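INTERNAL AUDIT FORM
Audit reference: QA-55
Scope: verify that the stored structure record matches its stored sequence.
Auditor: D.O.
Record contents follow.
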Amino acid sequence: MIESGPNGTALEHAKHVAPNGADVDMADAGPRFRLNDFVVLLKPRIMSLVVLTGLVGLLMAPGGATATTGLMAIACIAAGAGAAGAINMWYDRDIDLVMRRTQNRPLPGGRVGPQLALGYGLVLGIGSISLMTFKVGYVPAALLALTIFYYVIIYTAWLKRRTPQNIVIGGAAGAFPPLIGWAAVTGTVDPGGIALFMIIFLWTPPHSWALALFRSEDYANAGVPMLPVVSGEHETKRQMLIYTVLMIASTLAPAALGVSGLFYLVTAITLGGIFWVKMWRLWKVEGTEPAKPLFLYSILYLFLIFLAMIADRLVFFPVV
């Protein structure tokens, strides 16, 4: 049986090839969930980065938060990120079935039903926003609600399947966590928090397009208009080069604003230099072979940038 998904892509719904090579009848499979599947629905890799960047916002904000407030804020940020991930998987289950790297996710794998996944995400989302509102503050709660809305509605449901600039515009969703952490302490949106936001916002295009370059066939088959599919390798690399320059420049802002000190500045320049070398190699070499190493480094890069901020604040540049 051929069934059409939310983007109108025709999908072979009746038969699905399981990881062991056997055909699975998706119509008869029904949800056969494992506890691990409910963890997978939360996109734990993304959540770990969200938690780290939210923690950085908490630690870098002037004044500091109590341990209780800080733990509550981080828990709500994590739950909100998980909610957005679960709803994203619910909406994208049609294209996840087509793309090789996502075919065994809980929904296309037939282990979790769509209604259960959607309900799971909604409960987490509403719960995290409510808890943030009453236990931390209205401003961080509003930012958390905006983050979930932006990722689910603006990016997933609207931009992702309609424009090659989906990552650029939609990247704001992933950039909010440090701003939420900052607002949990200060109750406001300040230049320091915006600087942390901009680092992730400008990091997202080169990071995501690196993945899209070596997975372009997957995106083309699923009908997702990622930049390499629509504009080709050369234009994608050119735009990645521009965003890399902007991203590296943005990592200097915390030091310029007095939020971080010398240790962070030296670390950011060093890590940015390595990123630039890898990006320049991708630009100069024909084909997409250097894209995967750049993608993998980009993940490490962002973790190390924010870990350097934490080290700088706790060890080298403590708040007095």
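Auditor finding: record pair retrieved intact. Residues 30 and 154 are 30 Å apart (CA to CA).
Action required: none
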